Structures are given as structure tokens and as C-alpha cells.
């Protein structure tokens, strides 16, 4: 007997007196595979409720083969499952119901083609037992247990990665709309790997409108007097100018005459007290 069927011979030995029909042979094999997969039997019947005090077992309960139809209750991962077997001509149809979401799987077996005898070795009773066990796995068990396994995997907390982890930057670095790391900080210079996103650093000053990073680092507000060495308007600064405050010239540099006004002086006939800074 192969290692894939380990324990199946013992299962038949424990219920040999209850196996009287060929259908019973199939039930024993299905029960063995369920218990091998982690299911535990809690009795016969089709009650869809759990009290919480059930003691699961690897053994088939008494009376499991007394009826023409089969109905066995199992617990798997805290959920209730019901295995039913019903005849349809020469075929027996098994259903495994997951009661919490009513998901059900089906396995139809032609009894006369699969089961040769009701006693003897496994090879004598079910010559094609390997293919039958594979069908039980794919058609009866996996369809109602894969969802449970996938939900458990989804709920498993994943370790958090640092924002600068290469796995997170790999795809984002290809995004032309991505803002370089540190670009929002006044005076910050983008890292080398983002130069292709902002060629020649164009637009750098737009991220530092106040020019906090220095005269060469930005400042989208034009100030002609922040250049190297400073710059004064023609005729000097007006009276009352606060030292260090910005001054917007009213004409291009080099236009006008020395002194207060320009030529022509737009205020050549000012009102009395025009030079009063509080007017």
C-alpha cells in the first residue's frame, strides 16, 4: 500500500462489521480522506447548528451505515460541514455542504465501476482507488475548503515596508507625475534618480516661492534688488521706505533724471503735502 493511503487500511479494519454494501466502501474512503485533511466527525444527521461542545473524532460514529442514504456531520477550522450521499440509479452522489456560506461540492460515482468487493485488501475492493482519492480531493473537498484557506491568508498581517523601500519605489519611479522625495521642502534638491523627471531642475523655484533656500534656490516672486551687490531704483529709494522691505520700481532702470522724479515727471504738479508718506 502506498504512503498516500496510509491509515486507510486501519480505517476499514475499525468498521469492517458495518461495511455491508459497496456504497459503504466509498463512504469509508471519503471519511478517511476528510479526517486526513483535518476534518473531525461529530455524528450523524443534518443539523446545521453547533453548540460548541461537540467532540470531533477520527472514527465513524455508530449507525453511520444503517440507512440507505448517508448523512454525516464534520467540523473543520471551526466551521460545520455536512456530508450527504444519495442514490440515483447505479450512481451515488455525494455532497459536502459548508453550512456557514451554503457552498456545496459534488462527487458522482458509478458504484459498480469503482467498487469490486466489500472486503479484502484495498486493491481488491477498489482497484482504481488512487484515481478515486484524487477525485475526492479535487471535486469534493477542495471546492469548499480553498475559500477558507484563502481568507486565512488574506487576514494574516503583512510586515510594513519603509516608504523608501526599493519594492515600493520601483513602480513609482516610472510615474512621470511623481513628486521627488523632499521636493515639498523649501530649498530641497531632488535626488539624482529623479533628474529625468525635472530636466535641468526647471520649475525648481516654483516649489520655493519665498526663496528661503537662497537667491539661487528659488523664489517665484520677482525682486530686482535681491541680486548680487544689490540694486537701487533711479533717484534712490522713496522717503519712508522700511529698511529691508521689498520695493517695486515704477519704471525701468536708467530712465529719468537724478533726483526725485522722472522725465517727464508724472507728478510735476503735485498737490500740497504730496511728499507726506501718510497720504
What do you see in this structure?
The chain is α+β, with helices and mostly antiparallel strands and 279 residues long. Helix 2 packs parallel to helix 5 (129-155). The chain contains six helices and five strands. Strands 1-2-3-4-5 form a five-stranded antiparallel beta sheet. The protein is rod-shaped and about 125 Å long. It holds the Pfam family PI31_Prot_N. This is Proteasome inhibitor PI31 subunit. InterPro entries: PI31-like, PI31_Prot_N. One of its GO terms (molecular function) is proteasome binding. Residues 17-150 form the PI31 proteasome regulator N-terminal domain.
**Cα-atom Rg, whole angstroms?**
44 Å
Largest sheet, if any?
5 strands, antiparallel
Arithmetic mean of pLDDT? 76
Percent range for helical residues? 10-25%
Structural class: alpha+beta
Work out the helix count.
6
Low-confidence stretches: 192-197
Give, in spatial order, the strands making up the sheet with the most strands: 1-2-3-4-5
